[in-house]
Design brief:
Layout: E1 9-17, H1 19-26, E2 29-32, E3 37-42, E4 45-53, E5 59-69, H2 81-96, E6 100-102
Antiparallel strand pairs: 1-5, 1-6, 2-3, 3-4, 4-5
Length: 103
Amino acid sequence: MNDDEWSAVRYQFDEPIDLLDAFEQAAIEHLEVSNERTIVIYSHTVFDLEVDTGGLADAQSISIEVFDVSSDHTAPNDPDPVALTESVIDELTATVRVGWERR
């Protein structure tokens, strides 16, 4: 997969959410890099998540990019970055009961 296919996908939440709390509640591993950025490990995939509006504790919109997909991942050889990112977004927003849309 070339770099163009791994571009960031942007999401808007219906209301600000505390991503750190959502990660903890959903038992999703992450490494906080700054107040606006964290590296997320979810379902054999590593993501770079950056908050566009707010911070990790009150995110209104985010950009999330696939860093790496494990060879153990069961998706086709050329996994869809949107499908991968939406799986983690679905998990987070279901945990804190907030709606979202892709921008």
